[in-house]
Amino acid sequence: MIAVFLQQEYAHHARYGDRIDECLREEDVPAARITHPNIDDPADNVQRRKVFARYRGYGAGGNSYLTDFPDSGIDWNWVALTPDELLDSKYIRYKYWMELSGGTRSPRVAAERILAGFGAADEFHRHFFDLAGKIRSGTALPPVILVSADGGRSRVILEGHSRITAFAMAPEAIPAEVEVILGVSPDIAKWDEY
Fold this sequence. Notes:
The chain has helices at residues 2-11, 13-27, 32-35, 42-56, 83-87, 95-100, 107-115, 125-136, 161-169, and strands spanning 75-81, 145-148, 156-159, 178-184. By secondary structure, it is α+β, with helices and mostly antiparallel strands. It has 2 domains: 2-56, no CATH class; 75-190, no CATH class. Strand 2 (145-148) and strand 3 (156-159) form a beta hairpin. Helix 2 crosses helix 4 (42-56). The two termini are 17 Å apart.
């Protein structure tokens, strides 16, 4: 999960890269640990976890949306979801996603609002249309990371909000199965964003 999360955010260097680069320097970790992760190397995994802790507060406290996220006892697996299962996932309780979805936390509602012009002045607005266009053209998007406190019956987006929003804007182009990373633990219910 950590390797995929960091890799996805680092790929959006204009938005997240400077902060991740800073964390890499502070932890004396080469960028290749993110850009070309070897998850079979325990030392690499320790280094990535340190960067993730500094970057997003994961298991380290601080002021981030992952500060109170459980950092152990989660069962992480690759799972295939149907389009409906994917689009039924909920946004975190973060202000931007709450506003975009009209307080519903639903990517489907957010997509309807975006397509109707909500947020058109937002600098990020165009990004949703670009991603939806990629989905319609058959471009494979990186996997999203979801979490669940109830065995996977309900899911909250940990990473990949924009991609799921774009899927909701182009539902006709979603494959029959979408592979995601799903973390499951009852402890996730204690997370503020759940």
